Amino acid sequence: MERVYGGPDLLDIVHQSARKGTLLSSCNSEVKELMHQIDVLLTKNLEDAQKEKELLKEQLQTREKEITSLRVHLKEKTTQIKRLQDELVKCDRQLKVKTSDLETQLLRLRTELNRLNKSYEKLKATKTKTQIMDERTQTIQCLEEKVLSYEEEIESLTNDN
Questions:
Q1: In Å, how far are 29, 30, 57 from 12, measured between CA atoms?
Q2: pLDDT tens-digit map of 89-115
Q3: Confidence bin at 56 (pLDDT 50/70/90)
Q4: Which residue has the higher pLDDT, 32 or 69?
Q5: Cα separation of 161 and 156, whole Å?
Q6: CA 26, 32, 33 angle in degrees (round to 5)?
Q7: Pair 34, 40: CB distance under 8 Å
């Protein structure tokens, strides 16, 4: 060992004193006191380390419980999301079917409306023709009546002359 501070090495002093037998007798009470202090320090350090270990263990257990709780919550939410996605897909399908049905009904109604419009136009044209025919028939009848009336008048005038 290299000496840093220039004095005698403590280990050398302890070895020399041990060979002479003076170390035990002169330092016995100091060594006992030093050993006692070391024991107290070690005990305190062990207690502190044990308390810290227990604290860390409790924190770890708390964190593990939190993680377990969060995993359960996550699993529930994942299940809920999956269920809602399935419902959304189902509703989307139903909406497409309903939309298709309504479009088909709308097409049928438009076709029926067009057919009814054509039929109405024909009926209107027929009715107009019928009205015209009726009016002409009435006019003809009226004219026939007038002709008859004129003929009777002419006949009556011819008979009178």
A1: 21, 18, 45
A2: 999 999 999 999 999 999 999 999 999
A3: very high
A4: 69
A5: 9
A6: 105
A7: no
Polymer length in residues for the chain:
161
7/136 Cα distance (integer angstroms): 153
- Say how far apart CA 138 and CA 148 lie, in whole Å: 15
Whole-prediction pTM: 0.45
The per-residue b/e assignment along 72-86, b for 16 or more CB within 10 angstroms, e otherwise, is eeeeeeeeeeeeeee
Mean pLDDT along residues 25-50: 87
Distance CA 108, CA 1 (A): 109
